[in-house]
Amino acid sequence: MSTTSSPAPGAASSHVTEQALSEGVRHALEVSRRGCDELLPEADWIRKLQRSEATGAPLRIKLGLDPTAPDIHVGHTVVLNKMRQLQDLGHTVIFLIGDFTSMIGDPSGRNSTRPPLTAEQIKVNAETYYRQASLVLDPARTEIRYNSEWSDPLGARGMIQLASRYTVARMMERNDFHDRFKAGTPIAVHEFLYPLMQGYDSVALKSDLELGGTDQKFNLLMGRHLQQEYGQEPQCILTMPLLVGLDGVEKMSKSKGNYIGISEPANGMFAKILSISDELMWTYYTLLSFRSVADIAALKAEVAAGRNPKDAKVALAKEITARFHSAAAADAAEQDFNNRAKGGVPDEIPEVSLSGAPLGIGALLKSAGLAPSTSEANRLIDGGGVRIDGAVVSDKGLKVAAGSYVVQVGKRKFARVLLA
Predict the structure, then answer these.
(1) Cα separation of 326 and 359, whole Å?
(2) What are the residues whose beta carbons fall under 8 Å from the beta carbon of 106, sequence distance 6 or more?
(3) For residue range 348-384, what is the model confidence (pLDDT) as tens digits?
(4) Boundaries of CATH 3.10.290.10 in the chain?
(5) How open is the CA angle 283-300-304, to the nearest 5 degrees?
(6) Is CATH 3.40.50.620 what the domain over 18-240 is classified as, yes or no?
(7) At the topology level of CATH, where does 351-419 sit?
(8) pLDDT (tens digit, 9 = 90+) per residue, 56-78?
(9) Fewer CB within 10 A of the terminal residue: the chain, N end or C end?
(10) Mean pLDDT across the chain, nearest whole number?
(11) Coordinates of motif 'HIGH' region in the sequence (predicted)?
């Protein structure tokens, strides 16, 4: 849910015609706009870009992520990709790990209070975040910060002073708070602190631009408001769409099981990208690919003219798999996928040692982890979905003798079974 109510953005009324901009600023503006949902206020961002070009001083661009899970998925990389694009323009990017704000719990888009994480959970999760983000960002040009640096020293007195900078009435304009209050759903007082603390991060870092998903708009604009309160030039904000998951319906989420983890094996990553719809593929190209807008438009035109859309999907799958693994791993994943599609055996399959030969096929499939139960194993056999060394198994009463076998269930499940 996008929280559209927000602090007053304070956008300037003057308008700069793009024809009057230098080539460098026009290019930076084009990069900024690519795939974004909103860039606010754009006139202020243009002025910041012009000042940076004139002075040679890079702009400070901030992205904050709370380590609420052990690792991140490609949906998180939508904003990381934008950071990398702006980093490649020469600007300073700040990857902010919200170790303090994680203890509050972000209420954005929530219809209930989110349980705060323990300090131990936050520490474990934070250890993987920057390492994984570095697969997208250039680590040598990335400033990594933790918001406990300035949030812990703030203390009770500082927290009270910060809270005085915003009103309850304005806080209740936020969609999720408004809806929960109207429905009689509890809102804990500490939840009001989250947008204040995220906004204060922008004050502490003196950021020129803050990035986030569309669900973060209220929090991002809070940073702009607080910077004005503290006498700083207010940051601009850039929101990116929330990536739709593999199901083509819900936003990508581990809890919904429709995600692609950036640390999962190359073969699985490649196959998952191949599973998305042809229509969703173009959204993934816009938000995840590093190919130019012109290249993507040309590829889309080729598909519209009759080229097999699978060609474009394979190219996307190889690009993303190579980013998080290697070009060689992407090539191998493509070969593995093709082998599976043809009924071939992948290069690497799990080995399982079993005893009890001769063993009934149903018990073998269950013991090897290829079927959840004997009855499900029998159903798979009835459907022609079980093979031993490439031969379809049709007899549910089959007793398998001792030996080594490649057992396949469906197109993707394999095991090398050593039966004694």
Answers:
(1) 41
(2) 66, 68, 114, 194, 198, 219
(3) 788 889 998 889 999 999 999 999 888 888 989 988 8
(4) 351-419
(5) 120
(6) yes
(7) 3.10.290
(8) 999 999 999 888 777 789 999 99
(9) C
(10) 87
(11) 67-76
